[in-house]
C-alpha cells in the first residue's frame, strides 16, 4: 500500500489511530502488486480511513502507516475478509518477517514549507 503523494499524510485532530506495518519481503512477489492495489481500494472505502504513508529502504525494509479516525474503522479493516485472505497469503508467500504496531495518537502536528 502506498501514498502516491510527494508529501506525508497531514496531521489530524487527535485522537485517532495508526497501524504501523513494518516488513521484509521474500523474493517471491508473484501477485503482490495486484493484491496490494486491491487492498488500497478496499481500505479507502472504509468510513473513518484517513490515509496512508509508505516507505521502502534500498535494503528492503518496508514501512506502511495507516491512519484511522477511530477504533471502529481500524477494526473494520482488520476484519475485512479479503484483507484477512491477503494476510494469510502474505505470511505464506510474500513476507520474510513483519511487525504490526497499533497506537492511539494523542498529539499531532505538521509543517509545510511555504
UniProtKB/TrEMBL annotation:
The keyword Oxidoreductase applies. Transmembrane segments: none annotated. Its EC number is 1.14.-.-. GO terms for molecular function: monooxygenase activity. Keywords: Monooxygenase, Oxidoreductase. It holds the Pfam family ABM. It comes from the Bacteria. Residues 15-88 form the ABM domain. InterPro entries: ABM_dom, Dimeric_a/b-barrel, Jasmonate_Hydroxylase-like. PANTHER family: ABM DOMAIN-CONTAINING PROTEIN, BLL5343 PROTEIN. This is Antibiotic biosynthesis monooxygenase.
Amino acid at each position: 500500500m502506498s501514498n502516491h503523494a510527494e508529501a506525508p499524510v497531514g496531521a489530524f485532530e487527535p485522537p485517532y489511530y495508526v497501524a504501523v506495518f513494518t516488513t521484509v519481503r521474500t523474493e517471491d512477489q508473484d501477485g503482490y502488486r495486484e493484491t496490494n492495489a486491491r487492498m488500497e481500494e478496499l481500505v479507502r472505502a472504509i468510513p473513518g480511513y484517513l490515509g496512508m504513508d509508505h516507505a521502502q529502504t534500498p535494503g528492503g525494509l518496508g514501512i506502511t502507516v495507516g491512519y484511522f479516525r477511530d477504533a471502529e474503522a481500524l477494526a473494520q479493516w482488520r476484519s475485512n475478509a479479503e484483507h484477512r485472505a491477503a494476510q494469510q497469503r502474505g505470511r505464506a508467500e510474500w513476507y520474510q518477517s513483519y511487525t504490526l504496531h497499533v497506537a492511539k495518537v494523542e498529539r499531532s502536528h505538521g509543517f509545510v514549507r511555504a
